[in-house]
Design goal:
The protein is an all-alpha fold. Helix content is 71%, strand content 0%.
Length: 182
């Protein structure tokens, strides 16, 4: 276990997992397009679950559960890979990440998500008629720009709820310094 993990406050694995599952299930509620917890749950899991296996498994399993209900799609491999990338980013947030640090990592995660997922849509054809040239790629990104605001808003809201919720839990419970949730 790294020094970062030892320095983090442990709120309890059960609470962290419950928050991730609830966030993933919130995808079932009506919401604007791309206003989802997808990016935030990976970041949160990486930051708060000391067991790196759980940090990757929990958000991916929670997303799989919600995808089974919502419906499976051809872009799942890319989306799940991006969730895993966000977990990796979360592992690098460091002990007790502050709002500015979470916001910066959240902006990076949302931007990478936008760039990679839309590139994958273009590369796969996505049934949207984009030509397989630079003009088609530009058209794909241009069509996606209006949705990016929802991606950013979703990251901001869900990161605030998850990370802010943990900060509030720590403050209320008076949790002692220890390693992250084991």
């Amino acid at each position: 276990m790294s020094n970062d993990a030892v320095q983090r406050i442990a709120p309890g694995t059960t609470l962290v997992i419950a928050l991730i599952v609830l966030a993933a299930l919130s995808r079932l509620l009506p919401h604007p397009p791309n206003f989802t917890p997808v990016e935030a749950i990976g970041l949160f899991a990486g930051a708060w679950l000391a067991d790196r296996r759980l940090a990757f498994i929990v958000p991916l399993a929670a997303m799989a559960l919600s995808d089974l209900i919502i419906g499976l799609h051809s872009g799942m491999a890319v989306i799940y890979g991006l969730i895993a990338f966000n977990v990796w980013l979360g592992l690098r947030l460091g002990p007790k990440p502050g709002a500015l640090r979470v916001g910066g990592y959240g902006l990076l995660a949302a931007t990478i998500f936008f760039l990679v997922s839309n590139f994958a849509t273009w590369a796969s054809g996505g049934g949207l008629g984009y030509t397989r040239d630079l003009a088609g790629l530009i058209a794909c990104y241009t069509a996606a720009i209006p949705f990016f605001q929802y991606t950013l808003a979703g990251m901001a809201v869900y990161a605030t709820l998850l990370f802010g919720g943990m900060a509030m839990y720590q403050r209320i419970s008076g949790a002692a310094m220890a390693s992250r949730a084991a």
